[in-house]
Amino acid sequence: MDGMTAPLPALRRNLELMPSPVPESPGLLVRDPFRYADGILILPPPLVPCLLLFDGRHDEGDLREVLVRLTGNIEVGERLDHLRDTLSRGGFLENEVVEGMRAERHSRRTRRGARCTRARRIRPIRTRCARCSRATSPRPRPARHRRVICSASPRRT
């Protein structure tokens, strides 16, 4: 590794990597199971070896060498920037971007959890939901639909 440039950030270790199920877009599908990252990335097959360099030990010079070998073109600066920026902005690298996404996601869960806790104090957790008990159509519902019990607990997102 060249001591002049900073190392590339590491790829997050908790990402799901699998072959792309989309026939029109072959490659490697990268997904965040914790959903800090909003999107899903499909990396084209020629760029898949580049992911190995995002380990915190290799630098941009190493990535540039691999891209030159893969493309056969010396001018790979634009591709290098696009790959690095796409992974970073998407939240797939261990850097300050994903830390911000993680903090935002946790604060949203905390705020949502606080609202649900207050709601539970007002009414019991298992109550008959008003939507389930009133008829929404002119004909009566079968008995099994009238006995639905709803939970006031938050849904998992």
Report what the structure shows:
The protein has helices at residues 60-71, 77-89, 96-122, 130-133, 143-146; strands at 16-19, 28-31, 41-43, 126-127, 150-151. It has 157 residues and is of the alpha+beta class. The chain has one domain (1-124). Mean pLDDT is 76; it is low at 122-128, 134-138 and 144-153.
List the keywords.
5 helices, 157 residues, alpha+beta
Strand content: 5-15%
Low-confidence stretches: 122-128, 134-138, 144-153
Shape: globular
Number of domain modules: 1
Physical arrangement of strands within the biggest beta sheet: 1-2-3
Structural class: alpha+beta
Using only C-alpha atoms, the radius of gyration works out to 24 Å
How can the largest sheet be summarized?
3 strands, antiparallel
Count of DSSP H/I helices: 5
Number of strands: 5
Oligomer: single chain
How is the secondary structure organized here?
Blueprint: E1 16-19, E2 28-31, E3 41-43, H1 60-71, H2 77-89, H3 96-122, E4 126-127, H4 130-133, H5 143-146, E5 150-151
Short summary:
This protein has helices at 60-71, 77-89, 96-122, 130-133, 143-146, and strands at 16-19, 28-31, 41-43, 126-127, 150-151. It has 157 residues and is α+β, with helices and mostly antiparallel strands.
